[in-house]
Amino acid sequence: MPLLVMKFGGTSVADLGRIENAARKVKAEVARGYDVIVIVSAMSGRTNEMVGWVEATSKLYDAREYDAVVSSGENVTAGLMALRLQEMDVPARSWQGWQVPINTTSAHGAARFVSIPRENIDAKFAEGFKVAVVAGFQGVSPEGRVTTLGRGGSDTTAVAFAAAFNAERCDIYTDVDGVYTTDPRITKKARKLDRIAFEEMLELASLGAKVLQTRSVELAMRYKVRLRVVSSFEEVTDTSGTLVCDEEDIMESKVVSGVAYSRDEAKMTLLKVEDRPGVAAAIFGTLADAGVNVDMIVQNISELATPAATRAYTDMTFSLPTNQVDRARVAIEAAVAGGAFAFSELVTDTDVAKISVVGIGMRSQVGVAARMFAALAAENVNIKVITTSEIKISVLIDRKYMELAVQALHDTFELEKA
Ligand code: ADP
Ligand code: ASP
Ligand code: MG
């Protein structure tokens, strides 16, 4: 039997009516002759609510218990979806991660797949079941504990199942009808892309475009999964949505393809760090050991404390997710107390956002950064940190200018035009 993977995100299963709507789409594919693996998210808002409960209970929580709590939303929707399908005379069975089993590492809160054995689900298909409804976002560790894959992880579950079961396609059903040049919630001028290259999607996702989880794009690229983003709320045809595909399969060639933003960024600066070999390793080793996701890093040029001094000092700035600031501060204080490194002052700014422009066309075009900075300057937006790679430029700015900056860059690079 040909097989499809259909993933429904939180808004697509937000209540019983929407679960029924999603089930109708599944039934239609079964009627076309497919076996279907359905991956479901928790009802929208549920995971956030549970994360809030965990954080209110324990500030530096045990990640195993975080996973025990926050994975539960998907269990509810998986069971309800299977029941709804049964009511529609579609033979369906639900699966929690450990039942498949979806084997992952034991990196709680950010686990990675190790293996997804097919036997159990294949046996059910062989018995005559047409649909396997799998709880997204979760797995089981070698120690037998429930794990989660990081926020937005159901996308990755979907792609992993598409790879493991050789699915004809992996359709991500969500509340937008595809991938846009930027988040359509920020500007009405955002334009839907018919196709986007894996590498661009990878950058957009990792820079904040949450329409697909970064890891899902990585897996799709590696295992050559046909990955499509479509709307749950519209009729879907063969040409609907956005296909994430190889660069060679794209006709459109623009320097910049999209603008991404990440709202919940913070910036920390260690002032007057002694400038000697090993100091960056000590600081960022400490942060890595504490599980802090450091993103941008800037080290200022070295200064001597006085013209006659022999010791040089520097300032070290890095960005991180806002909700990891406490974790970072505790880790840094402990390392300083242990004599790993020293500095004079720690300055934290929790009101920043990261804006990025992405495009494979940047590889062969100069002046993109200058155009970006000029557009921000024209809006009087000050840039705090800059990083670049081959196909992206990111800046950190005050959060209050985030929308304005996205709109200005969308205009500057004329993304509304095909
Ligand atoms: P789901 O619950 O279905 O997983 P998400 O909320 O995780 O959905 O992702 C869909 C959302 O991603 C959209 O509602 C949109 O606001 C946001 N988004 C951000 N950037 C983009 C983009 N470039 N294209 C489309 N959607 C985007
Ligand atoms: N429910 C999880 C989250 O909100 C996983 C997902 O929806 O992809 O992050
Ligand atoms: Mg999502």
What does this protein structure show overall?
The protein is α/β, with parallel strands linked by helices. The protein folds into two domains: 3-175, Carbamate kinase (3-Layer(aba) Sandwich), CATH 3.40.1160; 260-412, VC0802-like. It has twelve helices and 19 strands. An eight-stranded mixed sheet has the order 3-6-2-1-9-11-12-10, with helices on both faces. A hairpin with a 5-residue loop joins β7 and β8. α1 (16-31) crosses α4 (72-87) and α11 (368-378) crosses α12. The longest helix is centred in the N-terminal third of the chain and has 16 residues, at 16-31. The structure holds adenosine-5'-diphosphate, aspartic acid (ASP) and magnesium ion. Adenosine-5'-diphosphate binds at residues 9-12, 41, 152, 174-176, 179-180, 182-185, 204, 209-211, 258.
User: What is the helical fraction, as a range of percent?
Assistant: 25-40%
CA distance, first residue to last residue: 39 Å
Estimated radius of gyration? 23 Å
Percent strand equals: 25-35%
Which fold name is given in CATH as the topology of the largest domain? Carbamate kinase
Bound ligand species: adenosine-5'-diphosphate, aspartic acid, magnesium ion
Largest sheet: 8 strands, mixed
Taking strands numbered 1, 2, ... along the chain, how are they ordered across the largest sheet?
3-6-2-1-9-11-12-10
Taken together, the total number of domains comes to 2
Strands, count: 19
Text of the CATH class of the largest domain: Alpha Beta
What characteristic shape results from the CA principal axes? Answer: globular
Number of helices: 12
- Specify the CATH homologous superfamily of the largest domain: Acetylglutamate kinase-like
CATH architecture of the largest domain: 3-Layer(aba) Sandwich
Average pLDDT figure: 96
